[in-house]
Specification:
Blueprint lengths: L1 H25 L12 E3 L2 E3 L1 H27 L3 H28 L9 H11 L3 H29 L3 H22 L32
Antiparallel strand pairs: 1-2
Helix pairs in contact: 2-3, 2-4, 2-5, 3-6, 5-6
Length: 214
C-alpha cells in the first residue's frame, strides 16, 4: 500500500514538473516595459527625437516671424523685404500646425526662442540697411540648413505616422525658405557649415577563385 502511494506521488510530481516546463515553453516572453521617454500612441511610438522636432520647429517660428517683420521695416533690398514677408506668412501658418500636432500628441512646446536665436535677434535688431540685409540672409540661411537636417533625420526614421506627416510638411516649408534666402544673392556659401563627411565604406569582399573550392 505504501509503495503504491509513493508511486502515485512520484508520478504526480513528474506530471507537475512536465506541466510547468510546458507552460514556460508555450507562454510568450514578458514584454519589456516601455521607456519613459517613449509613448505608445494610436499613431505609433513617439520618441525623444519626435518631441524635439516639434519644439525646434516651434522655436524657429518664435524668432523668424519677428525677424521677418523686421526685414520689411529695416531692409534696404526689396528682395529681402519680400523674403521677410514670406517668412512671416509661412511660419505663422506652420506655428499653428505645430501647436495642433503637439496638442494631439501631448508634447509641451517652448514659448521663447533658444539662447542662440535670441542672440541673432539682438544682432539683427541693432542693424539696418545693407548690413541688415547681409546678416539677415546669412543667419536665416544657416539656421534653415540646421533645421533641415534635423527634420530630414526625423522624417527618415520616425515610428509615428503623425510625425511623418508633420515632418514632410515642414521639410517643404524649410526648403522653400532656403531657396528664397538664396535668391537674395547675399548668402556666403563658404561660410555655411560643411556637409558631414561620408562614412567609411566597408571593405569589398575578397574574390574567391572557384577552382580552389573544388
Amino acid at each position: 500500500m505504501h509503495r503504491l502511494l509513493r508511486g502515485e506521488v512520484l508520478m504526480f510530481g513528474g506530471f507537475a514538473v512536465a506541466a510547468v516546463v510546458t507552460i514556460l515553453l508555450v507562454m510568450p516572453p514578458a514584454t519589456a516595459p516601455v521607456s519613459a521617454e517613449w509613448s505608445v500612441l494610436p499613431s505609433g511610438p513617439l520618441g525623444p527625437a519626435d518631441r524635439d522636432l516639434l519644439a525646434k520647429v516651434r522655436q524657429a517660428g518664435l524668432w523668424e516671424i519677428p525677424m521677418g517683420r523686421l526685414a520689411q521695416e529695416r531692409a534696404d533690398s526689396q528682395r529681402v523685404k519680400e523674403v521677410g514677408m514670406h517668412l512671416v506668412e509661412d511660419h505663422t501658418k506652420l506655428d499653428l500646425v505645430t501647436r495642433q500636432y503637439a496638442a494631439r500628441l501631448g508634447v509641451p512646446l517652448p514659448d521663447v526662442p533658444s539662447p542662440d536665436q535670441q542672440s541673432w535677434m539682438a544682432q539683427l535688431g541693432a542693424q539696418s540697411g545693407s548690413a541688415f540685409d547681409k546678416d539677415f540672409a546669412q543667419l536665416l540661411r544657416a539656421a534653415h540648413g540646421k533645421v533641415f537636417s534635423v527634420v530630414a533625420g526625423v522624417r527618415a526614421g520616425t515610428r509615428n505616422s503623425e510625425i511623418r506627416r508633420f515632418s514632410q510638411h515642414t521639410l517643404n516649408v524649410v526648403m522653400k525658405h532656403m531657396t528664397l534666402l538664396e535668391s537674395t544673392g547675399l548668402v556666403a556659401y563658404d561660410q555655411l557649415p560643411e556637409p558631414a563627411l561620408p562614412a567609411a565604406s566597408p571593405p569589398a569582399p575578397a574574390v574567391v577563385d572557384p577552382r580552389r573550392q573544388q
